[in-house]
Write a structure and sequence with these properties.
The structure is a single chain. The chain is of the alpha+beta class and 433 residues long. The protein has 2 domains: 98 residues, Orthogonal Bundle (Helix Hairpins), CATH 1.10.287; 316 residues, 2-Layer Sandwich (BirA Bifunctional Protein, domain 2), CATH 3.30.930.10. It is built from 13 helices and 17 strands. The strands form 5 sheets. The chain has an 8-stranded mixed sheet. Strands 7-13-14 form a 3-stranded mixed sheet, with no helix packed on it. A two-stranded antiparallel sheet has the order 2-3. Strand 13 and strand 14 form a beta hairpin. The protein is elongated and about 105 Å long. It starts with a helix and ends with a helix.
């Protein structure tokens, strides 16, 4: 959301930002609705004042034994006019709210121009991509080991679900636990266990509603399944005034996430790259305006560090205007190397939203000794997506015999297991130990 006063004062700034995103000028329609609403509010205030004045006059006239019929008729007329104006004002305000809610955030000047991901700019790489012979993708590897079962999942839930078995299920759990431990014990994030269902106002607060309604899952009682823990973590500060001395707040959670993938028909239908349900470690920072851009760099570095410890080659890109998310002013994508596809695929996206979400949530902060409040800045990022990290591990650590080596940092989480093989082979090995 946006500050109407700022739009009135700097319409060219906002139109330039939206035009960079490929939209036509929006401020003429906004300002027209804003003027109508304010005129109606002025009329309502004038009628309210007149009604109060005339009512006082009626009291004086009656107190003096006079006839106040004319004044009483005017009060009755005003009472009839006000609901009509209130209805008009409410309708205009709703139109204005709908328009403002549909508009994306204004991009930062440092974001490159471009219509789609082809214009994203690589800023760094880490690790040497593995060029393997006889590469198998994670689906074939997982199914050959009898540890990944898409058929059973489809029978239960349809497409874009997976059942993981035995060591693979444990490896998924190990990946998430490892990430949470690093972020809480070394990176200063506080872990939260949050609800997986939230109210509509929470989804609106972080920008999933109303624009992305079709990509969400809603329950029969009207709640929404979280598409990312960002929704729950960020909304922990809704309708609060925070002490500036307590910022930045750094929060993290490992949760299941749920997405319809409404706009991805036919994309990544094979495997675990794009699922309706997946696990993700989310990072959220609540900062002052002065801190937020430095915090974006820090958050991105925290996510990159996870891949470095897992020894997964990756690259980091800055997203162009056309690929930058609805709520973000600036975003970095971290893309892990996927050998079977011979390319990098997104595994984390770290974004700074400035005060866009805070205005929707009414989340503010105040410096000590000051009365004035300011909207917080909010940032979010994957630290990282567990399912996609699992895919990257399976493919980058595949062995010629079809087994999967366990990354060194995950071995303690796997009770010392160093190689993932078919469960029967592992059982036989344990029996002869």
């Amino acid at each position: 959301m946006f500050d109407l006063r700022s739009i009135r004062e700097k319409p060219d700034f906002f139109d330039a930002g939206w035009q960079r995103r490929g939209l036509a000028a929006q401020t003429p329609a906004i300002l027209e609705l804003d003027e109508k609403r304010r005129n109606l509010q002025t009329q309502l205030q004038a009628l309210q004042t007149e009604r109060n004045d005339v009512s006082k006059e009626i009291g004086k006239i009656k107190g003096q034994g006079g006839d106040a019929a004319e004044q009483m008729a005017r009060v009755a007329e005003i009472k009839q006019q006000m609901p009509e104006l209130e209805t008009q004002e409410s309708a205009v305000a709703e139109k204005l709210e709908t328009l403002l809610s549909s508009l994306p955030n204004i991009p930062d000047d440092s974001v490159p121009d471009g219509e789609d991901d082809e214009s994203n700019v690589e800023i760094r790489k880490w690790g040497e991509p593995k060029r393997l012979n006889d590469i198998k993708d994670h689906v074939d590897l997982g199914e050959d080991l009898a540890l990944m079962d898409f058929e059973t999942a489809a029978k239960m839930s349809g497409a874009r679900f997976t059942v993981l078995r035995g060591g693979m299920a444990r490896l998924e759990r190990a990946v998430g636990q490892f990430m949470i431990d690093v972020h809480t014990q070394e990176n200063g994030y506080t872990e939260l266990s949050v609800p997986l269902m939230v109210r509509e106002e929470c989804m609106y607060g972080t920008g999933q509603l109303p624009k992305f309604r079709d990509d969400q899952f809603q329950t029969t009682r009207g709640d929404w399944l979280i598409p990312t823990a960002e929704v729950a973590l960020t909304n922990t500060v809704r309708e609060q005034i925070l002490d500036a001395a307590d910022l930045p707040l750094r929060l993290t959670a490992l949760t299941a996430s749920f997405r319809q993938e409404a706009g991805s028909a036919g994309k990544d239908t094979r495997g675990m790259i794009r699922q309706h349900q997946f696990y993700k470690v989310e990072l959220v920072s609540i900062t002052s305006a002065e801190q937020s851009m430095a915090e974006l760099e820090r958050m991105t570095a925290c996510a990159e560090d996870i891949l470095q410890r897992l020894e997964i080659p990756y690259r980091t890109i800055i997203k162009c205007i056309g690929d930058t998310g609805f709520t973000a002013v600036k975003s970095y994508d971290i893309e892990a190397w996927i050998p079977s596809q011979n390319t990098y695929r997104e595994i984390s996206s770290c974004s700074n939203c400035y005060e866009f979400q805070a205005r929707r949530m009414k989340a503010r902060y105040r410096y000590h000794g000051e009365k004035e409040t300011h909207f917080v800045h909010t940032l979010n990022g994957s630290g990282v997506a567990v399912g996609r990290a699992l895919v990257a591990i399976i493919e980058n650590y595949q062995q010629p015999d079809g087994s999967i080596e366990i990354p060194k940092v995950l071995v303690p989480y796997m009770n010392g297991l160093t190689v993932l093989r078919a469960e029967t082979q592992q059982h036989e090995k344990a029996a002869h130990a």
